[in-house]
Design a protein that fits this description.
Strand content: under 5%
Radius of gyration: 27 Å
CATH superfamily of one domain: Tetratricopeptide repeat domain
Number of helices: 25
Largest sheet: none
Oligomer: single chain
Low-confidence stretches: 1-21, 23-36
Distance between the termini: 49 Å
CATH topology of one domain: Serine Threonine Protein Phosphatase 5, Tetratricopeptide repeat
Length: about 450
């Protein structure tokens, strides 16, 4: 495991218009003029927006909004189309007119969204509109969420906490709600609360963009070099160069010990010193330094991760599992800690804990192959063959030449042929098993495991 670098993370950027309005009508729409006749109005509106043709989307969205005035996805998309068509002022005037005639929460909601796109109105006017929407529909999580965002982006962090907490209560499974809540908590000095919110994010199937935002925020919260003494930075760079680039841990130790002579309470330097001793296979000194780092920075998940790695290298599985558990509790964006925790839970046959760890990893790193493979193992041990198949297919569909996962698919279907009692299901599983096992044998004729499995499948026919 490489030690952390000296690079400091930048502040999170202000939310963009796309993030604020977030069209998100329907996924999986088809593109191209040849398909327009078969697309429904929602899909077609989304296509127009993706093709940067908001004026064409307007008519469709206005019709959808007229039919379903309380559909917030449509309302948000309609406002986005109005803004991108250059009709922000006219749309605001129209919403104000509608509210004068018949006040509706959704109209105030769209008004707040429109205000938020204009720098001059992103503060008080947007806040007032969202507050009025909440007054008319207090149980709608989206309204509280948008109010929290408006306050947060106006740097009213304390004021943002109330509506964001309420949004999280009303929509506990919505990852997007927890992210601004975590930021507001961090900005108001509640780092523990911010980490707790991020722990909820990673368990709520976050999107890749949400994961990116969560990582950036976690890096701010857990920056081990925050307030690092300027006078020691040169020696720190020297020590890290010896450790990382030149692989001379003895010289790195001298540099780190020199820093600690003047600044004995720098947790990150104790952690780096522990990594250097670990490189020399001096486990005793490494443990002492990691313990010192944990004592000085008890909420830094990376220090527990380093300790867990050391325990694991010494075959102390239970101690390692406990350390990795603390690592992800204090830093839920540590991918390697989740992977280690999942494998250790799998070794203990704690399938529930293993499933959670590997599932979280597939959200944090959706393109990574090992977590999906391990998640498939868990599902297979639990007898959930469709879920195991889903994870394995996710890999082979992206990488058809992955023979390891093709073999595992064949073995999965082969096991199904042995377990199922219904002849038609056994026959279908057998056909799938043969297909995948033969594919493996075409590439690897000497694969004994595939050959034996194929023979067993044919024997059940």
């Amino acid at each position: 495991m490489k030690p952390p670098t000296l690079r400091r993370t930048s502040l999170l950027r202000r939310s963009t218009l796309a993030a604020v309005l977030g069209c998100g009508l329907l996924t999986g729409c088809q593109h191209g003029s040849s398909m327009e006749r078969v697309l429904g109005p929602r899909d077609q509106a989304r296509v127009y927006m993706e093709q940067n043709q908001p004026a064409k989307a307007l008519t469709l969205l206005e019709e959808l909004h007229a039919k379903s005035p309380d559909d917030l996805d449509v309302a948000r998309a309609l406002t986005e189309a109005q803004v991108k068509s250059g009709r922000t002022d006219a749309w605001i005037a129209e919403l104000q007119r509608r509210n004068t005639q018949t006040e509706r929460a959704v109209n105030h909601y769209m008004l707040g969204l429109a205000y938020f796109t204009r720098a001059s109105d992103a503060g008080a006017p947007a806040v007032a509109a969202f507050e009025r929407a909440i007054a008319l529909a207090p149980s709608e999580a989206e309204f509280h969420y948008r109010l929290g965002i408006a306050l947060l982006e106006s740097e009213q962090y304390t004021a943002a906490l109330g509506p964001l907490r309420r949004a999280a209560e009303l929509a506990p499974d919505r990852a997007a709600v927890r992210l601004p809540l975590a930021k507001a908590l961090h900005r108001t000095g509640d780092s523990a609360g911010a980490v707790a919110a991020l722990n909820a994010v990673v368990r709520a199937a976050p999107s890749p963009s949400e994961v990116t935002t969560a990582r950036a925020l976690m890096n701010q919260i857990a920056d081990p070099f925050n307030s690092f003494p300027k006078a020691a930075e040169g020696k720190l760079e020297e020590g890290m160069r010896f450790l990382q680039e030149l692989d001379v841990p003895q010289q790195a130790i001298l540099a780190f010990e020199e820093i600690l002579h003047d600044y004995p309470d720098l947790a990150v330097v104790h952690a780096l010193l522990g990594l250097a001793y670990q490189r020399l296979d001096d486990a005793g000194r490494a443990v002492d330094e990691f313990k010192q780092a944990i004592e000085l920075a008890p909420r830094d998940g990376k220090n527990y991760f380093y300790m867990g790695e050391l325990y694991l290298s010494r075959q102390r599985a239970e101690a390692a599992r406990e350390a990795f558990g603390k690592a992800v509790a204090f830093n839920p964006l540590l991918d390697e800690a989740w992977f280690r925790l999942g494998n250790l839970s799998l070794d203990r046959r704690d399938l529930k804990a293993a499933r959670e760890a590997f599932q979280i990893l597939t959200w944090l790193s959706p393109d990574a192959v090992p977590p999906r493979g391990q998640l498939a193992v868990v599902y297979q041990l639990e007898g959930d063959f469709p879920a195991a198949e889903r994870e394995l297919r996710h890999v082979v569909e992206k990488d058809p030449e992955n023979m390891e996962f093709a073999l595992r698919l064949g073995l999965l279907f082969a096991e199904q042929t042995q377990r199922t009692r219904k002849p038609e299901e056994r026959r279908a599983a057998g056909e799938e098993a043969e297909k995948w096992l033969l594919k493996v044998l075409e590439e690897q004729p000497d694969n004994a495991l595939a050959s034996r499995a194929l023979q067993q499948v044919k024997a059940t026919e």
